[in-house]
Design a protein that fits this description.
Strand content: 25-35%
Distance between the termini: 178 Å
Number of strands: 13
Structural class: alpha+beta
Largest sheet: 6 strands, antiparallel
Strand order of the largest sheet: 12-9-8-11-10-13
């Protein structure tokens, strides 16, 4: 026989285990609904984020493009220093041209020119240029028919302070203060007459006598033949009618014009039939300021 208390207890248990359908499913997720419900949500969130962003971002493409651009701007070797190559093969293999230029020296025989080989850039341009360098104590001057831009630091562009051989080139250098030294070093009449600076004849062969200090007296030193800078080179102007100095009878029958100058207190006179010595004064009959040493020119 079942007691009423036990039946009530059973009824209560059935109510808890088999109550309202909505309440049962929702009330029991503690273990069984945690796993399945959480997993899809987590998976969905993960796949919607970073993978999509990473695959569609243009970073790798941009990096590749940048590298390519950098390579293009730095492609190719720097311009070759052609002058460093001493033979035709090395010159040609490095994109340069093996050609000939003129080199000059200057000494007692005046300007001496020689053809020499030189490696130059193929696209060289510009005007006539002369350069020089000290090659172990020997001065080397080279004339280029263009403007060299790839020479080493030992090369210098010729100017009025450069070695005298720079005046031998056809590149014009306006250096009148150097011509006395330029011509004076020459000891041969033929070399003197053919000495050119900047492509123009510059020197003449003169007879010079030093007459001592300014005392209106002629000394009797031996005269010398010297090379001096001059003008009207190659002309013949000996004409007694056009020479006032000669007309005054200072030098009877003398037809050469006489010039004078004073150097360090010493009066010098010179004469030549034609060219004029640069920087000297022409002796004339009616110049009270000229020294009497002008008459000493008659003995030359």
């Amino acid at each position: 026989m079942t007691s009423p208390y036990r039946l009530l207890s059973c009824a209560l248990l059935l109510v808890v285990a088999c109550g309202d359908n909505g309440q049962t499913t929702t009330a029991t997720p503690s273990t069984e609904t945690d796993g399945p419900t959480t997993t899809p949500v987590t998976t969905t969130t993960t796949t919607t984020g970073e993978p999509t962003s990473t695959s569609t971002t243009g970073t790798p493409t941009t990096t590749d493009d940048t590298a390519s651009t950098t390579d293009d701007t730095t492609t190719g070797p720097p311009p070759a220093n052609c002058s460093q190559y001493a033979n035709a093969m090395a010159c040609g293999q490095n994109g340069c041209e093996w050609t000939q230029v003129v080199g000059y020296t200057h000494g007692t025989q005046g300007c001496q020119g020689a053809i020499r080989d030189f490696c130059v850039p193929v696209d060289a341009s510009g005007g006539l240029t002369s350069v020089w360098r000290d090659d172990g104590g020997d001065i080397e001057v080279v004339q280029f028919p263009f403007t060299p831009t790839d020479l080493g630091p030992e090369w210098n562009t010729c100017d009025c302070d450069s070695p005298l051989a720079c005046l031998c080139t056809s590149a014009t250098l306006d250096c009148p203060e150097r011509l006395g030294e330029f011509c004076g070093a020459i000891t041969s009449e033929n070399s003197c007459s053919n000495a050119a600076a900047g492509g123009q004849f510059a020197c003449g062969w003169f007879t010079v006598s030093q007459e001592g200090p300014l005392d209106n007296a002629c000394d009797d030193p031996p005269w010398q033949k010297v090379c001096l800078p001059g003008t009207d080179l190659g002309t013949k102007t000996c004409d007694p009618i056009s020479l006032p100095y000669v007309d005054q009878g200072y030098c009877m029958g003398w037809t050469d014009p006489v010039y004078w100058r004073e150097v360090d207190g010493i009066v010098e006179v010179t004469t030549i039939c034609g060219p004029k010595p640069a920087g000297w004064n022409l002796c004339v009959a009616d110049d009270p300021d000229q020294p009497e040493e002008c008459k000493c020119g008659c003995k030359i």
